[in-house]
Amino acid sequence: MIRNIQLRLSLEEAEDENMLEQKIARHLGLTASEFTFKVLRKSIDARKPTIYFNYKLAVFTKGETLDKTEYTFEYQDVSKAKPIHIIGFGPAGMWAALRCLELGYKPIVFERGKNVQDRRRDLKAINQDHIVGENSNYCFGEGGAGTYSDGKLYTRSLKRGDVRRIFESLVHHDAKEDILIDAHPHIGTNKLPKIVQNMRETILKYGGEVHFNTRVTDFNIQDNRLKSIVLQNESEITVERVILATGHSARDIFELLHKKKVALDAKSFAMGVRVEHPQEIIDSIQYHCSGHRNELLPAASYSLVEQVKGRGVYSFCMCPGGFIVPAATAPGEVVVNGMSPSKRNNLFANSGIVVEINVDEDIPKYEHFGALKGLEYQKDLERLAFTSGGRSQTAPAQRLTDFVEGRLSADLNPTSYQPGLKSAPLHSLLPKLIGSRLRTGFKAFGEKMHGYYTAEANIVGVESRTSSPITIPRTKTLEHVQIKGLFPCGEGGGFAGGIVSAAMDGERCAEAAVVGL
């Protein structure tokens, strides 16, 4: 290798497909025949009217072999190996299972939902018929919430594990190599199902087991040790090590553990609404353009935060060129989330705008629920959204300016939310704790992004599943503080906040669970 360098191209320069090679040659004083190169990192700098693409590049002597990957995944035949039982097959459970294969242990996975193909019918039922399947929906099923609700791979959890390893694992299972390069990598809800299926097939190929439509209904605990788990068909499975990776919406698991007096802690979280703009508005703000953005530029995104009355108000799970989707997990509730296809080519941009909830200070009326107080508060807002939306998956909504100025919207803007919207006075329906801070926050965001505060945007309620309202506490060895053999994991345990951080935690829990087995 000659060396690593950093270069930038203006948007106009980037329109010439040979310009990057020419700039490398000039920068190093070489001719094009002397080198080849690999893009290590690519990002966009659109802070000023002149937009730049920033590149980190590895430049090689011509003819030198370029390593395609930094990792090899050496999965072992574990068909006759000692088992590790995993409850949940979202990112935490999937990567825990894959890591078990590398460590020489047999993962046996129990997933309450269906495989990726069969989930499609249940998602159609939610969107078109307003029927919520309690075990198969946007949150439950193979791949978890990420499979059908976006696939953004951005994480701040850089100290919890090897982020690059997770990305390489996705590429190993046929994700595009772009995710190894882009500053904000994204796979897309249309691409993830096949990748998730490939990961499952790897687990099965090497002797692991994955059981769909298999909900865990009870834990048999003796002398503070997990002895067995009971499934919905009443069969009982003897276990020695269990990785609990059920996600932030498996409320029945939280309630079961609480009933059995297993240690849980209430955790602060965030709730609010999802705001939806025409994508052209966000593009015009971020790219300083009018009309259609340059075809080399992706649909623009944003990240916003404001402190209001001692609590953070911030954007969450921003989906450029995306859709708002119904993410309820039981009848009688309305929950919204966002997703983007791989091309991010829908006409709308949406993002959660949420308010921090301090469970120790902000919801005293729920104190009698103990560790479940945040969960119960969450439930009440989702029931409120269900009622005010018309008692279906139609969601209550308001024009952004009407919400801030405190008036009912006479009509609403077009939306990507398939079950439909109903005009509702969210400014008065939301608790003051959330609503007043959102109104102040939206005004501040309009000052930071001129054009953001507009009557052309809708707000849709409620965005309530940002993270788990409960932590299942564990020791430094990742085992539960009270129950031996139980390893709380991922978002459901309160130890992750997205696909990548959950995947890294799944790997760590697998490594911890096999110690001494």
In angstroms, what separates the terminal alpha carbons?
A: 44 Å
Which structural class matches the secondary elements? alpha+beta
Radius of gyration (CA) equals: 24 Å
What is the number of helices?
14
Helix content: 25-40%
Beta-strand level of the residues, as a percent range?
15-25%
In terms of per-residue confidence, which ranges show pLDDT below 50 for 5 or more consecutive residues?
none
Tell me the number of strands.
Answer: 22
Care to describe what's here?
The chain has helices spanning 11-14, 19-28, 91-103, 116-129, 163-172, 192-205, 251-259, 279-287, 373-388, 400-405, 426-429, 432-448, 490-493, 499-513, and strands at 3-10, 35-45, 52-61, 83-87, 106-110, 209-211, 216-222, 225-231, 236-238, 242-244, 265-266, 269-278, 305-308, 311-319, 323-326, 336-339, 348-357, 395-399, 421-423, 458-463, 470-471, 486-488. With 517 residues, the protein is an alpha+beta fold. The longest helix is centred in the C-terminal third of the chain and has 17 residues, at 432-448. The two termini are 44 Å apart.
Summarize the structure.
The chain is α+β, with helices and mostly antiparallel strands. Helices cover 28% and strands 24% of the residues.
